[in-house]
Specification:
Strand content: 15-25%
Structural class: alpha/beta
Shape: globular
CATH topology of the largest domain: FAD/NAD(P)-binding domain
Subcellular location: Membrane
CATH superfamily of the largest domain: FAD/NAD(P)-binding domain
Largest sheet: 7 strands, mixed
Number of domains: 3
EC number: 5.2.1.13
CATH class of the largest domain: Alpha Beta
Cofactor: FAD; NADP(+); NAD(+)
Bound molecules: nicotinamide-adenine-dinucleotide, lycopene
Keywords: Carotenoid biosynthesis, FAD, Flavoprotein, Isomerase, Membrane, NAD, NADP, Transit peptide
Helix content: 25-40%
Enzyme class: isomerase
CATH architecture of the largest domain: 3-Layer(bba) Sandwich
Length: 513
Amino acid sequence: MPVITHQSFADEPRPTQNFDVIVIGSGIGGLVTATQLAAKGANVLVLESYIIPGGSSGYFEREGYRFDVGASMIFGFGDQGTTNLLTRALEAVNVKLETIPDPVQIHYHLPGELQVRVHRDYEKFLQELGEKFPDERDGIRKFYDECWQVFNCLNAMELLSLEEPRYLMRVFFQNPGACLGLVQYLPKNVGEVAKRHISNPELLKFIDIECYCWSVVPADLTPMINAGMVFSDRHYGGINYPKGGVGQIAQKLAEGLQKAGGTIKYKARVKQILIENGQAVGVELTNGTVYRARRIVSNATRWDTFGKLIPETMMPPSERKWRKRYQKSPSFLSLHLGVEASVLTPETDCHHIIVQDWQKMEEPEGTIFVSIPTLLDQDLAPQGYHIIHAFTPSWIDNWEDLPPTEYEQKKEEAAWGIVDRLEKIFPGLDAGLDYMEVGTARSHRRFLNRDDGTYGPIPSRQLRGLLGMPFNRTAIPGLYCVGDSTFPGQGLNAVAFSGFACAHRIAVDLKLG
Ligand SMILES: NC(=O)c1ccc[n+]([C@@H]2O[C@H](COP(=O)([O-])OP(=O)(O)OC[C@H]3O[C@@H](n4cnc5c(N)ncnc54)[C@H](O)[C@@H]3O)[C@@H](O)[C@H]2O)c1
Ligand SMILES: CC(C)=CCC/C(C)=C/C=C/C(C)=C/C=C/C(C)=C/C=C/C=C(C)/C=C/C=C(C)/C=C/C=C(\C)CCC=C(C)C
């Protein structure tokens, strides 16, 4: 398709071809929206500022290693029910991805030498946790069974836009029990449910880390609907790793988008969303090119959308209110390591969480997350080597305003501090290191285009479950948001839901078949 760029002699940026929908950003939220709409016949354009698709689920290659940018614990690849949203998103545009089942979701290494492995097999997990807390066996089962109730409701219904009244009526008449079940859990957080079944303080701390490791907040602040998905789907569809790396999900979706007639442009950074008569009508890139469309979707975070792509002065009051309820979560300090295979024993699990002191769980560097994707897909590293991706929460403030040499030094010191802590679990790591690349909040901000490098929004105080999370429409007509700044929040399967919902709402608005 020809692209006419803005000519310097024009006062106004020149409009190029019109589209039905423009999606700003090719994160999984953006790509699911785009592919769903293209599959319905819409003329879709995706604009991505980076050189490949995927955003935080992208990848990069160094010296024979293929590193995932983010974590490699992927939900949503099951083959039954309705909650397998990644499987369904790929199928919708006739692309396929081989996945590799992970037998253990997480191996926890917790204070007091407590170790727990979350097995794919639900009964095996309950058995293992019950052995550590024998007096709480009953409560453990009741708590996790209650999470299953939420999951079973979700997994029994078509998952589309909750902003579409006809869909809501349809699902209600098809499955009133499931809908009422979900209505009951929408305002709830995990903490209150867990405390109804469990009283042991250490076990409640365990429930906190079970939540924190994906929601970045403890159980009292984590929505019960999301916990229902995470704590059940890991045993139902399971955790499955995409062969070739997490980056393959976006690559395949981009391929499917093009097959379905959509367009994706890389190195296309949107500078502003164009508003005319109060309505979003197009975008302008940093190089001056203008594209117009009937609907605009932003896959950037809400902080990047309102305040950067839309000027601060035009921020709708609803967005100001949202900012009072939600704040930016920290970013991560990420160590992408290549290590000699001999560092890992054959029975090592793919994902680990390390907390040394419960009091420090939420502090910067208090929790370490580890992904070792080569245990599932050896082809991501040279023969005889593994990838270890270790990351830990870290705020941008810690990395701002440093001259280059000080920044590099600080990065190095922080990285070796993490390697030292990992030595306890992987003895010989330091000696077996072959490659190390370190990313900070600054790297996440720069490469992922996320304000302060944030992992996503977290409640600034205890809220009523998911009730405060906005859906896809915004207060600006014609402008929609998708991704982890929208209902139901962070996570690939969560943003895939947001993409299905956003595309559904737009398809209804545009009267697409
Ligand atoms: N489970 C896991 O292991 C795992 C792994 C990776 C990512 N994730 C999840 O993925 C979620 C993020 O997905 P998402 O869809 O919200 O988005 P994202 O942040 O991953 O992607 C947004 C994309 O938009 C692009 N973009 C932003 N501003 C732009 C602009 N002005 N012009 C052009 N492009 C622009 C970015 O470059 C990026 O590619 C996170 O919540 C994270 O939890 C999970
Ligand atoms: C009609 C009536 C009456 C009513 C209505 C009601 C209804 C219907 C409702 C509905 C609802 C819904 C649909 C909902 C939905 C939801 C969803 C889908 C959700 C989802 C979720 C998901 C999630 C949250 C996920 C997540 C994940 C994550 C985040 C992950 C991450 C990871 C990481 C980071 C980790 C790492 C670790 C290591 C390495 C160890």
